[in-house]
Write a structure and sequence with these properties.
This protein has 122 residues and is mostly beta strands. It has no helices and eleven strands. A hairpin with a 4-residue loop joins strand 7 and strand 8.
């Protein structure tokens, strides 16, 4: 089970840090990802991180602004978002994949958090 938090309202150019907590005992064996869904749009890939955290993957739209990390000792994954833009406004979801690392495909992720809303004002 995954639970994301940390969303909120921020001005353009600002920063937010999202957190995702896992209650699973095998968290360290899951590739983790963050996705987002803006109003009226499809859910899209944002970033992913490997089991150990040694490999990370980013959508072009967030590369250089967002940083994903994980702490397997705490069963946590984080998304640091800097230089936020109004187009980053969306509900952000964390997700876990037992068999895939770095995949951008929604269907590869079997476990999803409930989402946390990020609103970036201009």
């Amino acid at each position: 089970q995954l639970q994301a938090c940390g969303g909120g309202l921020v001005q353009a150019g600002g920063s937010l840090r999202l957190s995702c907590a896992s209650s699973g005992r095998t968290f360290s064996s899951y590739g983790m990802g963050w996705f987002r869904q803006a109003p009226g749009k499809k859910r899209e890939f944002v970033t992913a991180i490997s089991w150990s955290g040694g490999a990370t993957f980013y959508a072009d739209s967030v590369k250089g602004r967002f940083t994903v990390s994980r702490d397997n000792a705490k069963n946590m994954v984080y998304l640091q978002m800097n230089s936020l833009k109004p187009e980053d406004t969306a509900v952000y979801y964390c997700a876990g994949s037992r068999f895939r690392v770095g995949t951008q495909l929604l269907d590869d992720y079997a476990y999803w958090g409930q989402g946390t809303l990020v609103t970036v004002s201009s």
